[in-house]
Amino acid sequence: MAHRGGGILAPENTLVGMDAAVFHGHVAVEFDVMLAGDGVPVLMHDDVLGRTVAGAGPVADLPSDVLTTFDAGSWLAPRFSLARVPRYVDVVAWLRQQGVWMNVEIKPSPGADVATGTVVGRMTQEVFAGVDDLALKPLLSSFSVDALLAARCAAPDIPRALLLSAPPADWQARLDAVGAIALHCNHRNLTPGLAAQVKAAGYGLFCYTVNEPDRARELLLWGVDAFCTDRIDLIGPDFT
Q1: d(CA 221, CA 216)
Q2: What is the DSSP string of 225-236?
Q3: Count of alpha carbons within 13 Å of 136, Cβ hemisphere only?
Q4: How many angstroms separate the CA atoms of 86 and 137, rounded?
Q5: Fewer Cβ close by (within 10 Å): the C or N end of the chain?
């Protein structure tokens, strides 16, 4: 799965990045969604500007019609200077046209967990209304329990996954509390034993962020179902 779309090859969380993933043969992407100041969901990882998007201050202070005009690509290379912050709905529409599966990480600004989960969940439910095949629906994931609970209320038909960097002993109870079908964790904190427990319990297992092909193969041998990678050039759909 292409991490934030472009991995290291194109600006993260942009349509340019999604296009790079498709160009390299990926049929699944992971990206982050946050609310702009007017409540419109946009692709964004950081809750403040300055790292990948030109500007300063909280994302939540800016309406989407302003935020989507900001340069989201020059930080990586001058040739990406035209990349902009995209709206969630536009990215979903484009990826569906390309036949690409989506892992949508709900990434709330501080204090906006419930609002973000509700809006992203409701919009996703509306866009995928009438899609009965679970494999064709996106997967909503988050570190925020409150965001996932809100998404479950707004989009009961869209599957969910809980992000736990280092899964604690009660990982299954935490997944069950939000109705999650999968556990997502940092691959450095996964062991063969834990992987076996997760799979034996009937959950999906996803890891982030795997950039070494040998490590990727090892994780697959442990039973990991999927992982995201920044090295979309080295670890393609058929790298094994």
Answers
A1: 9
A2: -EE-BS-TTTS-
A3: 11
A4: 21
A5: C
Tokens read off for 156: 């009961």
Q: Pairing state of beta strands 2-3 and 204-208?
A: unpaired
Among all residues, which ones are annotated catalytic? 3, 45
The 8-class DSSP code of residue 58 comes to B
Supply 56's token pair: 């300063």
Residues composing the chain = 240
Compute the distance between CA of residue 91 and CA of residue 81 in angstroms, rounded to an integer. Answer: 19
How far is Cα 32 from Cα 18, in angstroms, rounded to an integer? 12
Label residue 55 by pLDDT band (50, 70, 90). Answer: very high
Where does the chain show beta strands of DSSP type E? 2-3, 28-35, 41-43, 101-106, 139-142, 160-163, 182-186, 204-208, 226-227
8 Å CB contact between 124 and 153: no
> How far lies 181's CA from each of 34, 79, 121, 157, 233, in Å?
22, 40, 16, 12, 29
Nearest in space to 59 (alpha carbons), one of 81, 42, 74, 75: 42
- Give the H or E element holding residue 21: helix 15-23
How far is 35 from 240, CA to CA, in rounded Å? Answer: 37
Q: How far is the C-alpha of 174 from the C-alpha of 234, rounded, in Å?
A: 34
Q: What is the pLDDT of residues 89-140, one digit of tens each?
A: 999 999 999 999 999 999 999 999 999 999 999 999 999 999 999 889 999 9
Tokens of 7: 């991995």
